[in-house]
Model the fold of this input.
Amino acid sequence: MSQTIAVIGGDARYLELIRQLQSLTDTTIVLVGFDKLEQGFTGLKQLDVHELILGQLDAVILPITGIDNEGRVEAVFSEKPIYLTAEWFKELPSFSIVFTGITNDYLRDVIKQANIKLVPLLDRDDVAIYNSIPTAEGTIMMAIEHTDFTIHSSRVMVVGFGRVGNTVANKFSSLGAKVSVSATRIKDLARITEMGLSAVPLEELSTKMHNCDLLINTIPAPVIEKEAIKHLPSHAVIIDLASKSGGTDFKYAEQRGIKAILARSLLGIVAPKTAGKILADVVKQFVQKTK
Done:
């Protein structure tokens, strides 16, 4: 049974995702928002959004950023605006699956109205854990680029012990850094200690800043605030890996002369091919189940 998948918008990661999806048998891939690329680059049909035959789409793949609250899709490889309305989603067949990186209230609402399946890829444990590896490598790259000291023997504080924080802490420790990890849950603090790292309860973070060379935040909430930043040494660097606007008071860090970097879309910059393959593997699992 043949299937049709529409890839609508996306960044460099999606070039590899598209290549990977082309290996699916009995599957037609159509692209929207890739008109800056030569047609021969992918060998696939490129359409405007209004040219899609919605009733024939088995799956729709939205960008990692999803869509905004006005229904606008971010398309790095196109200058044409793309908007997806509630009515647009309602025209998709009931068996259709919509993939997105992250979701928001608007997308959840229109999907609910259309009564179709939504898969937020970045909410999945497997995707997040696989993605944490190139994220950690990208963080190491940024640390080398923005500091004037070696990672080895440097004092690194990782804030958050989720899927990204765990991998980041492990990779920096393997390079010889003296790593501390700040977390809230007792079991996380126990695991951090078991790994041979220094465990710091989040409420005590500000008291541990005076000897921190590199502060890496992974929590998408305001946790690196004035009280913590004011105790950092002047040479310290903050790298914020949290989604959206991060968890750092960037304005106060600037006032203090502390270099603070919001590492947005790090995966798309550091390892787009790897990131695209990770996403494609999950998408293929879903679409192959429905065949």
Summary: The mean pLDDT is 93.
